[in-house]
Amino acid sequence: MTILAIDTSTDILSIAIVKNGKALARFHRKANRRHSILLVPTIDMLLKKAGLKIKDIDCFAVSVGPGSFTGLRIGVTVVKGLAFALKKPIVAVPTLDVIAYNVLSHKGVICPVLDARKNKVYACLYRSDGKALKRLSKYMLLPMAELLKKTIKYDKVLFLGDYIEERSFERSGLSRSQDQILLRKIWQPRAGAVARLGAEQARAKKFVKCEDLEPMYIYSKECDITGK
After folding, report:
1. What fold is seen in the domain 2-94+189-223?
2. Three-state DSSP state, 107
3. Which of 116, 176, 204, 207 reaches 20 to 30 Å from 91, CA-CA?
4. What share of the chain is helix, strand, coil (3-state, %, to 5)?
5. Residue 180: left (phi > 0), alpha (psi -120 to 50), or beta?
6. Does domain 103-184 have CATH number 3.40.50.300?
7. Is the pLDDT of residue 217 over 50?
8. What is the DSSP string of 67-93?
């Protein structure tokens, strides 16, 4: 199976073409909010590098958030258009899953943390055995102090994400010893991980219809625009 995977959830533009687990071409670079300009031309460039046509793509995998509202809309819209025109399947991969996959080899609890502004973070808890991830929580939007309360029961937690700095814990008002907290800054979501996680969903036939594909927005009450 040949998968075109896209992540536009952060200020990084990450794209990969992966065939049967092998990367044929990839792009991972800071986009400086130029995703809408760079995404389609970069896909075309990678297809040429891989010696493929867009019709050769068997499945599209897209990172759906949470993350940058604008970035997510751009990625989802492009994938919907391509998949609809080509009549190819889509798999939707949560961005926090993609970030956690960066440290899959870590055996223990993993917690990706993204800055959601207004003193809140997007986060999720996972347990890794070094080979696979098991999600332990829902995808959350909450203050960092509340997140730390949820993780205090675990001996060690590997935190990673754009929000993770030592001062984040100082601001929370909670103290945890250094042997309880492991900090990682190798967090950026990568399209290669989107492709791998997407391939697992594709094998399980967990496809999303074009008309049902939407970004994963996790709203706080004060900015909920769903009307629900």
Report:
1. Nucleotidyltransferase; domain 5 (3.30.420)
2. strand
3. 116
4. 35, 30, 35
5. alpha
6. no
7. yes
8. S-HHHHHHHHHHHHHHHHHHT--EEEE
